Automatic annotation (TrEMBL):
Keywords: DNA-binding, Transcription, Transcription regulation. It comes from Oleiphilus messinensis. Residues 1-20 have a biased composition (Polar residues). PANTHER family: HTH-TYPE TRANSCRIPTIONAL REGULATOR RUTR, TETR-FAMILY REGULATORY PROTEIN. The keyword Lipid metabolism does not apply. This is Transcriptional regulator, TetR family protein.
Amino acid sequence: MSKSTNTSKAQAIDKSSTTGKKYHHGDLRSSLIQEAKVLLAADGVEGLSLRKLADRAGVSRTAPYHHFKDKHALLCALAAEGFEKLNSFVNTELAHNDPKVALPKLVRTYLEFAYKEQEQYDLMFGRRLWKLAQPTEELRNIAYACFRNYAKRITGFLTGTPDKEALRLAQASWGTLHGLSHLLIDGIYIDLAGMEEVSEIAVGIMLKSLQGKG
């Protein structure tokens, strides 16, 4: 059976499974991911299942399997969606060629995303997908593409810096954001009341590093 035939068959099943139930605007996979995010935020990874997802989305219990072969594939899709958002933030917030303008925007946006989407953020960078199992090709591709994009834009703020040194600076600055995000999520050392001040200090550290290398 051809790939196009399989795709058409899956689409037909998806369409029939939603009859009399929720309308998914022609893209069941995206709708399932959004519904899964709600379940993930409410019940955590352990409380998420394809069966619960189908019930919440208002589709047959077999419909999600046409898009995610198992729970692991669904979790990888959720993580990939998070990296798509981060990549979009990088493109938007680092578009300005002045790091004094760009970095404060990125730091605030990054921390806000991590705090608002805590379960998804933990999933994106957690051991469950990267150490205890194999990430899907989709997840691996967008995760690395996101960092390469960030590194390229950070390097763009530098002049005359060796590539390896610029890469290490990008890794260290991302690590700063990631570490602050986890402290905020875990509620240790940082809370929402102090996030703005901490963000400003983080920006200062990053700018000093860039200026020292530029």
